[in-house]
Amino acid sequence: MPVIIFMMVSLPMENILVRSLLGVSYDIWVLPGLIFIISSLVLFPLLHRDFFDLRIHNKVLGNIALAPYSKNMMIMSYLFVAGMEALVAALISMVIYSGFISFPFSFSQFGFMVLCLLLYILILGNLFITVSLLTESITSHLFITFMIFIIILFGSGLIIEFSFFPRVVETVLIFQPLSIPFRTLQIFLSNGTVQWALIGLSLVLALAWILANGFLLKYKLRQ
């Protein structure tokens, strides 16, 4: 999968967008975005299975709900397991990509990228859980998921910089939740500035969303 994404995204796009607006070669600029995309693709089926497929078929999730744990703890546990799998897949993808392009990051940049990736996984994972709990038909679930991936690919700054969009659209996309961790990373990679406000906002959003999903899960299991 990492090789396919690299061939379908980076190779053609670097002939269209030779350099980013920051003056960085596109294949290097887009590398973090490809890593985030890989983690998104790995994260979805894990949470889809646990919170949608097993729920509507009355399988494992209902039995697990009988365990003496709070619903918030259950949400965090599922997020942790799925998030670790997504993170491992992202790190393996980075090793694979290093065979195509030279590794452009210092140790501090790599560490900060992992931090931002974890925040992104927390936010996206919560979104997947919410959609999985709120939808009852496979058609509506897959349609909403498809729209989410459209936003991930083209509206989160992963492969297309926000500055290429009209000003109004750019403003909306910059402040949509999925773009905040990646924008934080790009700011750090471009000038070394740590945007603590954006990191704090991402963390607060993720934790609040876990609480909301806990209440939603509790409500769904009572039905």
Automatic annotation (TrEMBL):
Keywords: Membrane, Transmembrane, Transmembrane helix. The chain crosses the membrane at residues 28-47, 78-100, 112-135, 142-165, 196-217. The keyword Transmembrane helix applies. This is ABC-2 type transporter domain-containing protein. It comes from marine metagenome.
